[in-house]
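// run 5 | inverse folding | seed 20
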């Protein structure tokens, strides 16, 4: 069992930060890697052609390890989840009469992409809502998604957990059903990968995209994606010199090359060798791979269990633990509470959580302790 890791971060002593789903604080090791990266450009003569490849390769290896991918060439370096999704959408063919499936109130980057694709192709978006009552909400929502997949479905695009309330989607079942009808499965792992185990070999998604600045503990404007073999021959949304075959040979760059680097490397963003962000992201993933997502879940479960019981006793609603993440969960207010007042009270007490719709989104991590959550409960129940 992991112990509290607050000393590895630089959070102010008085801050009760329960908001990693908004943005993670910086690990000291990641900060250090960034500073070394900044300094490296003081003397560009020290930056060798091989450095454009070595850092990116190490980063791919760490991410491949985290999500259990055998071939790191299936990993692309992206600046945002939307960028990774745009690469996927560019290579999808859909026809009028076909449909794609998303969950209700999904994060916009994983909606607008599909709205455009639907407009361009005449395909239909099926948006699957949860039930209006809280009884078995997560279970019924999952059942509805499975029922919605039909022989006209070409694509299912979901998070592993819902970004606003942590509802967990049963990706194994959704993969099974989507495969039966020949539909692709595209996962936005931004609110889960790093903190919740994700195994590419077990789930076999076609695409996984992750913004890096939340549960991957990375800097902003840096993310990672996995593309399965369906996309191996695809066309990227931009053309960059380094994603072409033989780009390692700097003296031959104007021997314009028709072919791309293998696998998903063609989907890397331009200037993907970023000498500041890449070492930062790599340092973050090294730490996460040492901690391990299953142990992060265990830790978050342990520090939140008592508080969730207390909240339920006070009339708040939290999803059953089978159908949510331990690192991210929604807390719905009893009828007599007003969300704006609750929010102001939490802020006054230096407690950081997010308000998403009519619920609080609580997102603990290894720098939190049980007392942080109890402090939040006290504010919510008095
Ligand atoms: C589920 C999810 N996906 C993606 C993002 C970020 O998207 P992008 O990287 O496209 O800015 C967020 C940010 O809150 C999110 O919650």
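// decoded
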């Amino acid at each position: 069992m992991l112990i509290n890791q607050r000393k590895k971060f630089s959070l102010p002593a008085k801050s009760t930060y329960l908001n990693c789903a908004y943005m993670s604080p910086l690990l000291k090791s990641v900060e250090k890697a960034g500073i070394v990266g900044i300094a490296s450009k003081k003397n560009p003569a020290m930056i060798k052609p091989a450095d454009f490849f070595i850092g990116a390769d190490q980063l791919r290896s760490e991410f491949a390890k985290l999500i259990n991918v055998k071939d790191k060439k299936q990993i692309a370096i992206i600046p945002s989840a939307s960028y990774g999704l745009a690469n996927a959408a560019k290579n999808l063919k859909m026809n009028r009469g076909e449909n794609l499936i998303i969950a209700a109130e999904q994060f916009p980057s994983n909606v607008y992409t599909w709205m455009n694709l639907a407009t361009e192709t005449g395909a239909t978006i099926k948006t699957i809502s949860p039930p209006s009552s809280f009884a078995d909400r997560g279970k019924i929502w999952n059942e509805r998604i499975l029922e919605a997949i039909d022989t006209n479905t070409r694509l299912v695009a979901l998070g592993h957990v819902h970004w606003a309330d942590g509802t967990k989607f049963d990706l194994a079942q959704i993969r099974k059903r989507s495969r039966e009808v020949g539909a692709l499965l595209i996962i936005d792992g931004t609110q889960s990968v790093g903190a919740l185990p994700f195994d590419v070999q077990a789930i076999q998604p076609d695409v996984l995209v992750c913004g890096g600045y939340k549960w991957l503990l990375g800097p902003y404007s840096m993310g990672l994606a996995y593309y399965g073999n369906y996309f191996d021959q695809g066309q990227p949304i931009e053309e960059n010199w380094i994603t072409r075959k033989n780009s390692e040979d700097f003296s031959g760059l104007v021997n314009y090359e028709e072919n791309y680097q293998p696998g998903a490397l063609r989907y890397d963003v331009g200037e993907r060798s970023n000498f500041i962000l890449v070492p930062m992201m790599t340092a973050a993933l090294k730490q996460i791979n040492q901690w391990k997502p299953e142990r992060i879940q265990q830790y978050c479960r342990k520090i939140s269990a008592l508080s969730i019981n207390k909240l339920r006793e006070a009339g708040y609603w939290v999803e059953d633990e089978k159908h949510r993440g331990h690192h991210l969960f929604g807390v719905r207010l009893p009828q007599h509470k007003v969300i704006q007042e609750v929010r102001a009270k939490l802020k006054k007490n230096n407690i950081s959580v997010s308000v998403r719709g009519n619920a609080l989104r609580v997102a603990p991590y290894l720098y939190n302790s049980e007392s942080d959550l109890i402090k939040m409960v006290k504010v919510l129940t008095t």
